[in-house]
């Protein structure tokens, strides 16, 4: 029996933020990497993210470690953009997170630059508690371009192709890293994955410099707006069980209306783009090494709405696993 050709030591499946960050971290460690995805990064769910750093509604023993490492990298990328004009897509933005209930801030928020509790007078009508901090805000299309360019500089491109099964992946590489997001529901398969559709609008920025984010552990239609230069991202929605990728005009109109109730300058704002993506929600993030016959599969999925916030930390852990495997 002829053994299948080994085209690379590591095959990364998926070209969203988790796949690209993992591939880049491996490539920087001098590991040969090949990236294959059904869709190019600009067509991935990651491109539809808001996105602001914050380990929201995810569970794993390593969340604190992963999110802190990711914050540090994003902070550095924001510095590169602000000081030297490198188009990383990351900015450090100050703003308010507020709740309609008498809540306390999550522990991670209290560690951020500029953290302080807000007075009631600082909060929008209907909100009774809140806090200020400064956090990385990420322009996802620009950020994905930055990651792709960084990969290309190391000789790695993203191939468009379909990996039908883990057997198919194992025939192509000794080590496969599964960064397929909700696609892992079919590929693994993993019935613990739940699709949560999210929609947002991108509008002309009427002069906003600070973000606003509603804090709640239950609401499906949280309000947030994230300034990104001459544009502002308005959100959002969380629709469990929905996996269709068509934007709903009524949902987008509702998002704009709710944001304008918080910030009057957003009334009548011109919407430039509408985005929809599927968050891969899972009870526990899966970062796990699994033997697959004589080959190895390393899973990296189930990050929910915290893919960016955990991306660099998860990628570092996977790099360490891969190095242990290929050096054994």
TrEMBL record:
<dbReference type="GO" id="GO:0003884">
    <property type="term" value="F:D-amino-acid oxidase activity"/>
</dbReference>
<dbReference type="GO" id="GO:0071949">
    <property type="term" value="F:FAD binding"/>
</dbReference>
<feature type="domain" description="FAD dependent oxidoreductase">
    <location>
        <begin position="10"/>
        <end position="319"/>
    </location>
</feature>
<keyword id="KW-0274">FAD</keyword>
<feature type="binding site">
    <location>
        <position position="163"/>
    </location>
    <ligand>
        <name>FAD</name>
    </ligand>
</feature>
<dbReference type="GO" id="GO:0005737">
    <property type="term" value="C:cytoplasm"/>
</dbReference>
<dbReference type="InterPro" id="IPR006076">
    <property type="entry name" value="FAD-dep_OxRdtase"/>
</dbReference>
<protein>
    <recommendedName>
        <fullName>D-amino-acid oxidase</fullName>
        <ecNumber>1.4.3.3</ecNumber>
    </recommendedName>
</protein>
<keyword id="KW-0285">Flavoprotein</keyword>
<feature type="binding site">
    <location>
        <position position="305"/>
    </location>
    <ligand>
        <name>D-dopa</name>
    </ligand>
</feature>
<dbReference type="InterPro" id="IPR006181">
    <property type="entry name" value="D-amino_acid_oxidase_CS"/>
</dbReference>
<keyword id="KW-0560">Oxidoreductase</keyword>
<feature type="binding site">
    <location>
        <position position="180"/>
    </location>
    <ligand>
        <name>FAD</name>
    </ligand>
</feature>
<dbReference type="InterPro" id="IPR023209">
    <property type="entry name" value="DAO"/>
</dbReference>
<dbReference type="GO" id="GO:0019478">
    <property type="term" value="P:D-amino acid catabolic process"/>
</dbReference>
<comment type="similarity">
    <text>Belongs to the DAMOX/DASOX family.</text>
</comment>
<feature type="binding site">
    <location>
        <begin position="38"/>
        <end position="39"/>
    </location>
    <ligand>
        <name>FAD</name>
    </ligand>
</feature>
<dbReference type="Pfam" id="PF01266">
    <property type="entry name" value="DAO"/>
</dbReference>
<feature type="binding site">
    <location>
        <position position="224"/>
    </location>
    <ligand>
        <name>D-dopa</name>
    </ligand>
</feature>
<feature type="binding site">
    <location>
        <position position="279"/>
    </location>
    <ligand>
        <name>D-dopa</name>
    </ligand>
</feature>
<feature type="binding site">
    <location>
        <begin position="45"/>
        <end position="46"/>
    </location>
    <ligand>
        <name>FAD</name>
    </ligand>
</feature>
């Amino acid at each position: 029996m002829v053994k299948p050709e080994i085209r690379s030591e590591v095959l990364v499946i998926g070209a969203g933020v988790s796949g690209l960050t993992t591939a880049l971290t491996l490539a920087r460690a001098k590991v040969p990497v090949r990236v294959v995805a059904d869709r190019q990064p600009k067509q991935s769910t990651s491109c539809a993210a808001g996105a602001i750093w914050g380990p929201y509604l995810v569970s794993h023993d390593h969340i604190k470690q992963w999110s802190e490492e990711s914050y540090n990298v994003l902070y550095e990328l924001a510095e590169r953009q602000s000081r030297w004009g490198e188009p990383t897509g990351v900015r450090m933005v100050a703003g308010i997170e507020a709740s309609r209930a008498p809540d306390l801030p999550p522990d991670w928020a209290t560690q951020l630059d500029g953290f302080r509790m807000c007075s009631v007078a600082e909060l929008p009508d209907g909100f009774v508690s809140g806090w200020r901090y400064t956090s990385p805000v990420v322009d996802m299309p620009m950020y994905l371009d930055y990651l792709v360019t960084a990969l290309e500089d190391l000789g790695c491109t993203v191939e468009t192709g379909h990996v039908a099964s883990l057997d198919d992946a194992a025939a192509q590489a000794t080590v496969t890293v599964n960064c397929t997001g909700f696609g892992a529901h079919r590929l693994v398969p993993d019935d613990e994955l739940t699709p949560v559709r999210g929609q947002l609008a991108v509008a002309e920025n009427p002069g906003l410099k600070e973000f606003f984010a509603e804090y709640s552990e239950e609401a499906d239609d949280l309000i947030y707006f994230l300034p990104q230069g001459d544009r502002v991202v308005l959100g959002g929605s969380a629709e469990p069980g929905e996996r269709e990728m068509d934007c709903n005009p009524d949902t987008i109109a509702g998002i704009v209306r709710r944001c304008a109730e918080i910030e009057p300058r957003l009334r009548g704002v011109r919407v430039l783009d509408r985005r929809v993506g599927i968050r891969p929600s899972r009870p526990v993030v899966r970062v796990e090494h699994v033997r697959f016959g004589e080959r190895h599969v390393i899973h990296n999925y189930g990050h929910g709405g915290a893919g960016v916030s955990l991306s660099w930390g998860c990628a570092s852990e996977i790099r360490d696993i891969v190095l242990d495997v290929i050096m054994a």
